[in-house]
Design goal:
- By secondary structure, the chain is mainly α.
- Helices cover about 60% and strands about 0% of the residues.
- The protein has 9 helices and no strands.
- The longest helix is centred in the N-terminal third of the chain and has 26 residues.
- The protein is rod-shaped and about 95 Å long.
- The N and C termini lie far apart (about 95 Å).
- The protein binds zinc ion.
Length: about 200
């Protein structure tokens, strides 16, 4: 390799070291200096110089590790959580009923209503649920139909005064959100479950 080429490489490395030193100093004195984005290739002298050194760094630079900002870590973990959760949610064989109402996991839906939780998971004062654990001899309610949450909330004649309109499959997620956010609808859900339990006792 000709000596001129070696000199050139050496110079590039020196420049690269200078660039890296400047960047580290800027990081150290971030209270006084900051790096800003500017549009590329419009003749900004400083930006062209920065672009030149960036290309040098890509070619000759050594890999450097800089700590990521906290916001980046939070966002990365949040996306990872949602991604893993969605895979688990879509492949899980349990909770098929809940998936009709909550087809995809998300962080925006939240309820502290135990009645909505009971409606969704079916774990409540429903005769069909109690029958599963031999706490009732039958899974049929007084009307003769299977006494699950769906029945009490939508169709049982004993809870007629509190019936909610049964949504089609496609509309179940919107329906659930409405019940969570609308106090009137929520109170009807509560009343139908409490009425069913009262009669059942
Ligand atoms: Zn009934």
């Amino acid at each position: 390799m000709p000596s001129s080429s070696l000199d050139y490489d050496s110079k590039l490395r020196d420049l690269l070291l200078i660039a890296l030193t400047i960047r580290e100093k800027l990081t150290t004195y971030s209270d006084f200096y900051s790096l800003h984005w500017v549009r590329a290739h419009i003749g900004d002298y400083c930006n062209e110089i920065a672009d030149f050194f960036a290309k040098l760094a890509i070619t000759y630079g050594e890999k450097k590790n800089f700590p990521a900002p906290q916001s980046h870590i939070v966002m990365t973990l949040k996306n990872k959580l949602l991604s893993d959760w969605e895979v688990w949610w879509s492949t899980c064989n349990n909770g098929i009923w809940v998936q009709l109402y909550i087809p995809r996991p998300n962080l925006s839906f939240y309820t502290n209503s135990s009645f909505i939780t009971r409606f969704l998971n079916g774990h409540g004062p429903f005769i069909s649920y109690l029958n599963r654990f031999n706490l009732k001899s039958t899974n049929l309610y007084l009307c003769g139909s299977v006494g699950d949450a769906d029945h009490y909330v939508f169709s049982c004649p004993f809870t007629r005064d509190f019936h909610l309109k049964c949504p089609v499959v496609k509309a179940k997620p919107i329906w659930l959100r409405s019940v969570c956010e609308n106090p009137y609808l929520h109170s009807k859900l509560i009343s139908s479950i409490l009425t069913a339990r009262k009669i059942n006792q």
